[in-house]
């Protein structure tokens, strides 16, 4: 089929006989996943809501002008329960849009995967999950879900990935 995977993903999944026959096979000991990609990013805001007394989703800089929304990163962090709060929804006027914006910041689009700034975007996802799993309950849940997913997908190990910018 040729080409880049994401560009051809739907076609590979629906038309490739090789892909269909390989899916149930053991993938072998070389296949791994990066720990911060154990399952989809939709879990992150759900867990942040679950531990809302101490979990904060914050932008890395104030959202003052329209450019800020494009260049800012989001961080999940565990803070003391008495930390002063401000809702991400206050930047967007509704929480549904705020969560959609957070997801857009966490999930790479095809042009970003194959773009020149992919490392910075991948690092953002690593920072997000790292902040979330600082909460014991979220950590236990994430580890359990990741292990279950690895067994289901026949993945041999999960690689811990530090991110480049601290």
Portion of residues within helices:
40-55%
Number of strands: 4
The overall number of domains is 1
Order of SSEs, N→C? HHEHEHEHHHHHE
Note the main sheet.
2 strands, parallel
State the distance separating the first and last CA atoms: 39 Å
Strand coverage percent: 5-15%
Q: Given the structure, what is the number of helices?
A: 9
Mean pLDDT: 75
From the alpha-carbon coordinates, what is the Rg to the nearest angstrom? 18 Å
Low-confidence stretches: none
Strand order of the largest sheet: 1-4
| Class from secondary-structure proportions | mainly alpha
Shape: globular
SSE order and pairing:
Blueprint: H1 5-15, H2 17-22, E1 32-34, H3 43-50, E2 55-59, H4 66-71, E3 74-78, H5 89-92, H6 95-106, H7 110-113, H8 118-132, H9 136-153, E4 157-159
Parallel strand pairs: 1-4
Antiparallel strand pairs: 2-3
What is the compact description of this entry?
With 166 residues, the protein is mainly alpha-helical. It contains 9 helices and 4 strands.
Describe this structure in words.
This protein is mainly alpha-helical. It has one domain. It is built from nine helices and four strands; from the N terminus they run H-H-E-H-E-H-E-H-H-H-H-H-E. It has helices spanning 5-15, 17-22, 43-50, 66-71, 89-92, 95-106, 110-113, 118-132, 136-153; strands spanning 32-34, 55-59, 74-78, 157-159. The strands form two sheets. It has a two-stranded parallel sheet with strand order 1-4. The protein is globular. 15% of the residues are buried.
């Amino acid at each position: 089929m040729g080409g880049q995977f994401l560009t051809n993903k739907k076609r590979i999944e629906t038309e490739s006989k090789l892909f269909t026959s390989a899916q149930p096979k053991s993938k072998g000991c070389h296949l791994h996943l990066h720990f911060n990609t154990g399952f989809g990013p939709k879990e992150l805001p759900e867990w942040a809501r679950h531990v809302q007394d101490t979990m904060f989703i914050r932008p890395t800089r104030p959202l003052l002008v329209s450019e800020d929304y494009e260049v800012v990163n989001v961080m999940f962090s565990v803070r003391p329960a008495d930390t002063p709060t401000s809702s991400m929804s206050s930047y967007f006027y509704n929480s549904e849009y705020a969560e959609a914006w957070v997801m857009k910041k966490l999930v790479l689009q095809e042009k970003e995967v194959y773009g020149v700034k992919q490392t910075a975007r991948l690092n953002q996802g690593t920072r997000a999950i790292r902040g979330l799993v600082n909460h014991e309950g979220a950590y236990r849940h994430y580890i359990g879900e990741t292990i279950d997913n690895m067994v289901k997908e026949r993945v041999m190990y999960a690689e811990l990935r530090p991110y480049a910018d601290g």
